[in-house]
Amino acid sequence: MSEASRPGVAVFYRLLRKVIDVRPEEARVLLWCWLYIFAVLSSYYIMRPIRDEMGVAGGVNNLQWLFTGTLIGMVVLNLPFAYLVKTLPRRRFIPLTYRFFALNIVLFAALLYLADAAQTVWVGRVFFIWVSVYNLFVVSIFWQLNVDLFSPEQGKRLFGFIAAGATIGAIAGSALTAGLARFVSPIVLLLGAAMLLELAVFSVGRLSQLSPNLARRPDDEQPIGGSVVAGITHAFGSPYLVNVSLFLLLFAITSTFLYLQRAGIVAHSFASRGEQTSFFATIDLLVNTLTLVLQLFVTGRILVWLGVALALGFLPVLTAIGFGALAFTPTLTAVAVFEILRRAGDYGIARPTREVLFTVVPREDRYKTKGFIDTFVYRLGDQFGAWSVAWLRALGAGVSELALVAIPIALLWLVNALWLGRRQESRAQAEATTAK
Questions:
Q1: When comparing pLDDT for 21 and 163, which is higher?
Q2: Judging by beta carbons within 10 Å of its beta carbon (0-12, 13-18, 19+), is residue 100 exposed, middle or buried?
Q3: What's the Cα-to-Cα distance from 19 to each of 142, 167, 432, rounded to whole Å?
Q4: Contacts of 388 (CB under 8 A, 6+ apart)
Q5: High-pLDDT (> 70) share of the chain, %
Q6: Over the stretch 290-312, which tens digit does the pLDDT of each residue have?
Q7: Judging by beta carbons within 10 Å of its beta carbon (0-12, 13-18, 19+), is residue 77 exposed, middle or buried?
Q8: Helix (H, G, I), strand (E, B) or coil at 227
Q9: What three-state secondary structure class fits 81?
Q10: Sign (positive or negative) of CA dihedral 331, 332, 335, 341
């Protein structure tokens, strides 16, 4: 029986064909990819507003130190993770990683239950760092698996739609927290987040069984081998990967500029911690609703029709315009609208396009180098952004001045994006020619 002739899969396949260009052998894989990333993003978005509220409670002026702690956390985790990738097949190292993080969530729930008011502030600071590490690792691992499963051509067609599963999970998680934050202890929410990771582990097992249907490589369940430090050395070993790193670095710097400006404005706009958490969760809900529309109906078409270069250039252009607007109207409404549009543009267009970049690199780089870039390089950008904002504020810069500084960074990012997109397309063409 073919994949598309199975009763449940046949219905799913017919629905998919109305939205995207999908092949019969891809239908079940997409279904499990959706469930996998739905569980991961639901877990994260349950915790994200709790993290943001704890970051504000720990002191807005301390946020740059929390970003420094996050960078250290990335260094601590990258090498052990690279060792797992080197020695174990993906069907084993992915579940081990997720269960490690689930155990951490349960531990934080226990600490919050036992801590007094003063201790809760410090637990919150550590939790802020940990969630920031957690988010990048668990999402990066998901996309590492996807760029290993799918070819460049499949990535252009399918990654936007796959990312929609992440958005639905994010909507579910943020809606749950937005509705319950005023009435339910964060401990209960954290335990729910831990349970969702086990659903992700189950989905990984199903994808391991289905991966031969895509037939990209006959040995894709074998240990990758290589060096533990290959992810670090390879990231600086070719102009292509250096520019992938630069793309993410500039994205992270501008994201941190916006995040810290938002944190300062919110701290002065709401007195109640519950109101702050609800505001953060509401922003998440609006972002993910808009993102879902883009992913289902826009992203795949943009990638196929316009190509990778123009799709990558969209977010830097939006960022330059947004900071320009914020320079003239530094208000809560302006920063909220800018964040909603920028994050939706990232999740809906830039993120799926960025993942396509890794479909044309060697398999070892899809896991080790991608993991290093997605985690350490991203948080290095946080550092540049956080400490730059701290120094500029010490010199007397306000929201408007900070926005003006971010504009040339966004324009440099645009040049990088256009170069990188053209290089990806030439590599994909060469790979397709070799495969014939």
A1: 163
A2: middle
A3: 23, 16, 25
A4: 253, 257, 405
A5: 92
A6: 988 888 888 888 888 889 999 99
A7: buried
A8: coil
A9: helix
A10: negative
